[in-house]
């Protein structure tokens, strides 16, 4: 840390934070006697707090966001140059970076052709839900309005996105919820026994469960299916063999729009531009946010096929026919300006290949920990998006206690390594350690992460 602020300045910042800032996802009672953690600087894979303590960040900003690492001067300069020239105009008009980023990114998404800008993943998913609902009214007299979502998936923090949330503890105390959202079962093969599923062809079985829900609800009432390509906060769940192909077939069979939530996986996290591209499917709608600009500016996007777009201009004489929606800060030019430079870095530095290579290396290193520590029931993931599910007993697969999982996270923090874990999300199953280091990660970075987890597991579980 370069010490730009004096210790007196930092002390004032800490007191101002304690007095005035309401932090995300944090119980503030402990701050009556303890200081909050304030991150004051970042460079590459590392961050420093107000006390000068250095941490290796293995979760890309805490929530899977800073894909190209900290301290990218070229992104900061791109944002500066753009906002000095033209910082904002409502999304009813276009902008130079908005047009150029849409063209650049959609070239990586062969069946997608249109981009709608907004400013958060939650909002992007709400836009998709609204489109599905409006199509239901335009084409089906309002009947085909139901939206299916999956157990353990997460799509945002608003009331509507919580209505489509498969993490019950995230949504607790915020109901009643928006009607018309229907849950389908998860696809975690490691937990197939809890579902009474067969030991063979689990992927097809899990997809068939979606079809059963569609038939129960009535195919003429279901308009959309919203899924993460790899479930993130619900346990880093990679889909089983045969699952995605069958899901695609089911959506086409019943004329259901397939909406892929790439808020976490999008723009490189799994080793491809998008997670769905790992599975050879063609969604109707894709939402993205976190890694789009690596956190250097707020930006989220919803992309659609041309067919979906055309549904909103097929009768220009109808004053209600267009998508009557706006996102105020979707008109900010800083987001697409940062996103263009973010993409350039990923391409020029070969970060998709690095993500795939380092992800495979890290998966292997976590496998070594699994051989050493009986508490690790399974390691899984794609690219640099990995999880290690902890269990109290490997034979029964009983989940490890959440407080012990969090103790591992805390131990790593003391060692100067920030990792994540599922917490207060899925009742009884908040037992997965989560890793999402930046796409610039090296073998040395991964070794440091794995060694910290190794020590933490030994001290926590013996």
TrEMBL record:
One annotated GO molecular function is: transaminase activity
Keyword field: Aminotransferase, Pyridoxal phosphate, Transferase
Pfam families linked: Aminotran_3
CDD domains named in the record = OAT_like (cd00610)
Kindly list the cofactors needed. Answer: pyridoxal 5'-phosphate
InterPro entries, from UniProt? Aminotrans_3, Aminotrans_3_PPA_site, PyrdxlP-dep_Trfase, PyrdxlP-dep_Trfase_major, PyrdxlP-dep_Trfase_small
Task: Give the similarity note.
Answer: Belongs to the class-III pyridoxal-phosphate-dependent aminotransferase family.
What name does UniProt use for this protein? Aminotransferase class III-fold pyridoxal phosphate-dependent enzyme
